[in-house]
Task: structure prediction
Amino acid sequence: MIFEYLIHILILVGIYTILALSLNLALGYSGLLNLAHVSLFGIGAYTSVLLNMQGFPFVLSIIASGIVSALFGFILVFSTKKLKGDYYALASLGFAFVVYSLLLNLISITRGPLGISGIPRPSIFSFVINDNFTYLIFVLLFLLITLILFSKVVRSPFGKLLEAMRDDELSLRILGKNTYRLKYKSMSISAFFAGLAGSLFAHYIGYIDPNMFYINEIILIISIVIVGGVASLRGSVVATVIIIFLSELLRFIHLPSSIVGPGRQIIYSIILLLILMKKPRGLFGRIDLE
Amino acid sequence: MSSLLLQLTLNGLVAGSIYSLVASGFSLIYSTNRFMHFAHGVIVILAGYILFSFYSLIGFSFYYSVLSTLIYSSFIGFLINKTIYSPLQKKKTSSVILLIASISLLILFQNLIQLFFGAGVKDIDYIDIQKGLEFYEATITQLQIITIIISSILCVGLFIFMKKTSLGKEMRAVSNNKELADIVGINSSKVKDLSFFIGSFLAGLAGILISLEQNVSPSMGTNLIIKGFTGAVIGGISSVPASIFGSYIIGLVENLGIAFLPSGFKEAISFFLLFIFLLFRPEGLASLRRRVK
Result:
């Protein structure tokens, strides 16, 4: 029983770590506070589920979920490339609301507020991942790939350019670098992995509805990134473990679900407020957010 | 068709009045503090719940409940500034961090309300359901007329306060140039406190009117601050009169919009407007006039 439960938590930790890493690429390394990150996660989830339930193989669906999310990430940053700081954050919030109301109102495609249930588990070339242990290994495989790729990206010249853009966009432009193109690339990569995480999440939980990808949920993922420290991949991994375990403890002490739901959000927001006030660089952060 | 349009226009005016109360407080706080106080929306809803507790649960008289709701909500806004925002601002925190803090406050209060009162809607049975007044071929209830009147009086009052009184002038001075205001001896931290106090008072009033007109639920705060914020952005976020103007535009556009679009898209219209304005005219319509000058 405990073992089963531990596997469940570890799967969630794996998925949220991918999500947190991808947000950290946008927020920590590129300086884009993307409040629509959960929407990109949701777009990935919906794309993968809708394709898979139309009969497309899982492998194609999950790749498509990354590509469609990356496309939306690109659209977001393409249209907002001139905005900075809190104006960018608010435009991305507006984007998140547009996505939410589309998910809610395009009932013929998304089934609206009812959500989609009975999502099948992934099957890869006739091998169906049914038990949670195999799913955990599957998720960890993805996580490993993400981690290796991201640590390569942030150490590459491209990653250094992103950090330079975050610190001083104008100087970088004077040096002749096209900062818009840097933003497109970093947001597309970030959105691609958010989409993959969304697909992994949807096929694991088995049910999605628009409220799972709304403003309430962004607080969790931002808490993780800021508690871990912006521009620190190691921080995001550690913080995901801490925060997911902490919030799952609530379920463990057998509180009714009407308390667990708000209780979690209260924990996330208090953690976030405390860290902003007491230790704004988080656990492993190297820089202050401008 | 014309009676439908008239009805939708009236609904738009009522919605616009409520949004303008939210937006004027929000933009008053923004203009003196230079950051987005998103938790403003949850103060509105909190006021509805305070009124519900005092009037429907405890059973105080209506006017006493309204008065204490206004006092409590003003003080809650004031205390949020004192405990969270001013320590952060003293450390020269960037406006992005303050935005994150205000969003987490929004989520915090929303979930606290949900924890204490449940996720369902609460109804304050002060006004009996009554047949609305006929106005040509459209109907409008007494409360809706009162809402429009109160909101217009307050907006005019706020305008006069900002233009004529010395406190209002100090506020505008801080909003125009904080350093200069400090040099000439204006106590800018007092002005900031005051803007939170007045802004939250307006939010409390909006909360009371909403809870009487419809009912309240914990998640309404997010929606309302988006409407108020959209109104403020469309008008011009750092100018109170401009954001009131923008709020009426939002109220009218989203209500007239459902004459042409399915009603499910009512919310989407204003979100879409918000996105468009942030992209193409983040400084709002108010800047049009300035550009002509």
In short: The interface with chain A takes residues 35-36, 84, 87-88, 91, 93-97, 99-101, 103-105, 107-108, 110-112, 114-115, 118-119, 222, 226, 229, 233, 262, 264-265, 267-268, 271-272, 274-275, 278-279, 282 of chain B (CB under 8 Å). The two ends of chain B are 41 Å apart (CA to CA). The mean pLDDT of chain B is 84.
